[in-house]
Amino acid sequence: MINERVEGLFHAVGGGDRMASTDMFHREEVQLASRNRGMPLEALKYNITPAGMHYLLIHFDIPYLDADTWNLEVGGLVANPVSLSLDDIKSRQSVTMPVTMECAGNGRTLLEPRSISQPWGLEAIGTAEWTGTPLGPMLEDAGVDPSAVEILFTGQDRGVQGDEIQDYQRSLTLEDANRDEVMLVYEMNGQPLQPQHGFPMRLIVPGWYGMTSVKWLTKIEAISEHFDGFQMDQTYRYKQDADDPGEPVDLIRVRALMIPPGIPDFLTRTRLLDAGPVTLEGRAWAGRLGVDRVEVSANNGESWDDGSLEEPVGKYAWRAWSFDWDATPGNHILSVRATDSEGNIQPTDQPWNYQGMGNNMVHRVNVVVR
Ligand SMILES: Nc1nc2c(c(=O)[nH]1)N[C@H]1C(S)=C(S)[C@@H](COP(=O)(O)O)O[C@H]1N2
Ligand SMILES: [Mo]
């Protein structure tokens, strides 16, 4: 369908001002938060996140799709355009891979001022075991024309964002689309995709922030120039202000999170622990890269000690870490940070960006020990 500009039809909070700088949350943010759940951090315990605990991010409405009538159109600049049924896709080579997916806006509410959008704390994360077929061989069969530069992926969902009526669409360069790990998937954790996760089929691009893994996929097109749609060139950018074109958000940055220890206070989620030895645990990931090191601080970052690491759950999936701490009575800020295989370390003070994208500052947890 055609995209269309609809200037000024919708008014967001603050007369369209996209920043907020207090602890007060707007009704619109809370509305988004209750549609798009996060993964409760205690679920960091699982190698593979149970499907019902995996985070969700849905820009528009969850489309109602019938697997019997659903088709995937593969077209554009290809020699053999095809329309594939779900059974056609299931009859192709099948792969199952654990992949850690993170929303690019994870941690957004920790920035000051914050961008008015889905108000994530740190729970926009999950690791699922995805089953599907590699995209590369399918593109090969389609016979992508040498004049093509990108592959465009279109979802069935449609809505308005930034005054533009649009289908949810993202593109990848031919090179990125042809990487071995890129898949079209129809199962999550051994079950058909749930409606909210993209039933009957979605793209999974391991190592990239989640926005690229287009759900409810209906169309794959080879195109001759860069796709400049809203979800590519307006949002998912590292920008300093509204007018800054910025740089594209792409690969997941290194991050570690901690399973909040002890028991929570209902409202504040501050933790209550008994004094004595406690094993702190969590997970760390770095997208396409490995995690080389996880460090823990019990004194709000004044000093750090190495935690121990378990084997990664998969090449594109998180690994567990643990650290033995002797909890002493009092109030503490526990912190954890990871370093990736290229030496990038999580920042203590997060560099700010306008859309709150790709931030990965150290995870801090308030605990009261008695
Ligand atoms: N069609 C479509 N695909 C989409 C989205 C969407 O709104 N529509 N959201 C994207 C974003 S921003 C993320 S982070 C992931 C989230 O996938 P999940 O809900 O299965 O965790 O899906 C991506 N794919
Ligand atoms: Mo996202």
Q: Which terms summarize this structure?
A:
binds ligand MTE, 6-stranded mixed beta sheet, 8% helix, 2 domains, binds molybdenum atom, Immunoglobulin-like, mainly beta, 370 residues, Sulfite Oxidase, Chain A, domain 2
Give structural notes.
The protein has 370 residues and is mainly beta. It is built from 5 helices and 25 strands. The strands form 6 sheets. The protein has a 6-stranded mixed β-sheet. The protein has a 6-stranded mixed β-sheet with strand order 17-18-25-24-20-21, with no helix packed on it. Strands 5, 7, 10, 11 and 12 form a 5-stranded antiparallel β-sheet that branches. A hairpin with an 8-residue loop joins strand 14 and strand 15. The longest helix has 9 residues. The chain starts with a strand and ends with a strand. Bound molecules: the ligand Nc1nc2c(c(=O)[nH]1)N[C@H]1C(S)=C(S)[C@@H](COP(=O)(O)O)O[C@H]1N2 and molybdenum atom.
Quick summary of this structure?
With 370 residues, the protein is mainly beta.
Number of helices: 5
Lateral strand order in the biggest sheet: 1-9-8-13-3-4
Number of discrete domains: 2
The distinct bound ligands, ions and cofactors come out as: ligand MTE, molybdenum atom
What's the shape?
A: globular
Question: CATH top level of the largest domain?
Answer: Alpha Beta
